[in-house]
Amino acid sequence: MGFRDLLKRSVKKAIGRDAGSKPAAKKGRGALPAGAVAWSERVTDTKSAEVVVDGVGVAVFRVNGRLHAIDNACTHEDGPLGEGSVEGGVVTCPYHDWRFDIASGECLSHDNRAVGCWAVEERDGAIYVTGRTSQGSTERGGAHNDGLEVITKNLDDE
Ligand code: FES
To answer: For residue 48, what is the domain's CATH number?
Structure first.
């Protein structure tokens, strides 16, 4: 056995397959049906999805098994609501903790700062966001709830 064979064996052992062979095909369901934004299993009660519909970021959630879709951009400073934590049908923005009712889009942290809602449905194991049902606030900015303003102010004072 020459050096080249030893090297191949070593590589094969390290990556768990024959060196030079193609990697195993990724398991999956293939392409989404036309118009679908995600496979159903991608959105669970503990896992949301951020998708783009007509050029707009939309966060899709499942609450007690029922799907809901709202604008992904928080009405405070555009934080990604789809990456927020969810509890009791309320998503908390990961940036500064503003809270939104997932079913209605209502902002629970600030008056008149609802996010827009979207119609969403599920067919044959896939999720479809079919259109806007409400417009969200176009205002941005406002108080932070996480103390960052105080930290920033303190840093500027030094
Ligand atoms: S960007 Fe969402 S709370 Fe600030």
So the answer is: 2.102.10.10
